[in-house]
UniProtKB/TrEMBL annotation:
Name of the protein this chain belongs to: GST-like protein
Every GST C-terminal domain range: 90-217
Domain GST N-terminal: 1-87
Gene3D superfamilies from the UniProt entry: 1.20.1050.10, Glutaredoxin (3.40.30.10)
Amino acid sequence: MIDLHFVPTPNGHKISIMMEEVGLPYTVKAYDMLAGDHLKPEYRAINPNARLPAIVDLAPADGGEPFAVFETGAILEYLAEKTGQFIPTDLRGRSLCQQWLAWQISGFGPSHGQAHHFIRYAPLGQDYGVARYRNEAERLLHVLDRRLGEAEYLAGDYSIADMATWPWVRATRAIELSLEPFANVRRWFDAIGQRPGVQRGTSITNAPNLSSLRPQLNEQQWSNLFGENMLASARDA
């Protein structure tokens, strides 16, 4: 019913977790971003931003043609609406879920992503970028910890806001941010990690594996991820 265009990043695992949690049938369409699969016209027709993941709903609720959805927050909300799962129905709960989802996609995820870039990928010696984004990544963990001292999950009950945030907390080990000072985050992280849907969703992998602390990219691979090839795919589309 759903095609999941996927790489095994924290953003990709947001959606594979959701797919497993809601129980919709889906097919993984694996991409090699180092080879530039995400820059091909066929994928840009699905996601004009040429980022992964994205989904194509082959049986949308309106009965129409297959429908593509890109951006992880939009995908999570779309799937929650489609299935009636993991988003509260009451006004306050729904708003809390949307607020924390917005917090993740606009702040927590991008700041942690920039920390990963400067610590793991950028040429050595980028001291300002490393300090700027590592500090912001840590600050946002404090925000998360404070919230999880008030509630069991971000919106009260387990929801798409938690699914969006959990994979990026899981990735803090790659930027050597310890969860030891964050007791509430650790309680929440461990509880979510025991969910069978989360375990199945994070077991989905494909090549290449960029889990090493300092991936080594050749010139072409760098260009496909961060450089001229990525720019050209938008400019020349």
